[in-house]
Amino acid sequence: MQEIVKVTSLTKHFRNLTAVSDLSFTVHEGDVYGFLGQNGAGKSTTIRMLLTLITPTAGNIEMFGYNLQHDRNKILKQVGAVIEKPDLYKYLSAYENLKLFAKLSGIKYTYNSLMRQLEMVGLAERAHDKVKTFSQGMKQRLGIGVALVHDPRLIILDEPTNGLDPQGIADIRNLILHLSREMKKTVLVSSHLLSEIEQVATRLLIIDKGKKLVEGAAADLFDPSQLIVELDTMDNEAALHQLQESGWAAALQPRRSHTLLLKTQKAQLPELHRWLVTRNIDVLSLQPRHTLEDFFLQVTSGKQYVAAFTD
Q1: Among 98, 123, 247, 290, which is most exposed with the fewest C-beta within 10 angstroms?
Q2: Which domain holds residue 37?
Q3: What DSSP assignment string belongs to 174-243?
Q4: 185/129 same-domain check
Q5: Apex CA 290: angle with CA 284 and CA 292, to 5°?
Q6: Rounded CA gap, 75 and 65, in Å?
Q7: Is residue 139 domain-shared with residue 233, that is, in the same domain?
Q8: What is the pTM of this model?
Q9: Are 150 and 170 in contact (CB under 8 A)?
C-alpha cells in the first residue's frame, strides 16, 4: 500500500519548549488516520509542519513520494485542510465562498460542479444563504467543502468537531466516512473526542509531550475479545481478598481508583459473574471496559496498567 505521508524524526523547538520530539509515523493510502493526544501534546504543531505553516527544527517529511522541503507546491496541490475553525467569508454565500476558493486554486468549475460539492457536505439547500447565518457545524462542513474543491488526495482535519453540538459531530463523522469509503480519500484527523475517532479510524497514532507512544491499526491496538472488567462491590477490600485467594488472582490488575480491575476474555464474563454470586459478593456493577478512551488513558496517564492491553 502506498505511503501518502512519511514523517521521520520530526522535531520542533520553541525556545526552551520542545513541542515535538523525534516523531516518526506513516499514513497509507486509504487510511482514516486518527491522530490523538492530550491538549499540548504536539498534534497541532505537527499538522502545521505538514502544511508548511511552521518550519521543523529537525527531521524529514515526505508526502506522495516527494520531499516537502524541496517539492512544497507539488505536494500542497494534492492536500486539502481545515485547521480548527475554517476561514470563510461570512458576508458571501456558501456557493460564492466555494466559487472564490475554486478561482484562487485555479480550478475549472461549473455551477453544477460546485453545487455537487455543496450537496456532498449537506449544504445544497443553503447554497445561496450568507455564511454569517450558518451554525458552527454548517461552517465546518463548508470548510471541508472548500478543502475539497481542488479534489485533493489527502484531507487533513485538525479538531473538526470543536464546538459542535451532537448533531454537528455526527454530521462530521458521517462526512469523514463518506470521504473515505465513497470518495476513496485518505484522511488524517486529530480530535479529542475519542469516541468519534473510534468509529471512523482505521489506524491510530497517540502522542504525549511531543513523543510517539503508540501507532498501529485500530484492530491491532485493542482486541475486543480482551477486556478490562471494572468491578464494584459493597465491600471491595473483602472482594479483593477473595479474588487474590482464587483462580482469578492472575486476572487482577493494578487499581486506578476504588474499583477492582480484572483482565479477562469476553467469554469468561458469565463465569466470573457466577463465581462472585456463589461467594456471596454483593456486586454493584460489573462493567467491561475496552474502548479507545480507556486505551488512550492507559498509555497517556494510566501507565501503571498499560500491560493490560499489551501482554
Answers
A1: 247
A2: 3-218
A3: HHHHHHHHTS--EEEEE-S-HHHHHHH-SEEEEEETTEEEEEEEHHHHS-TTEEEEEEEES-HHHHHHHH
A4: yes
A5: 130
A6: 9
A7: no
A8: 0.78
A9: no
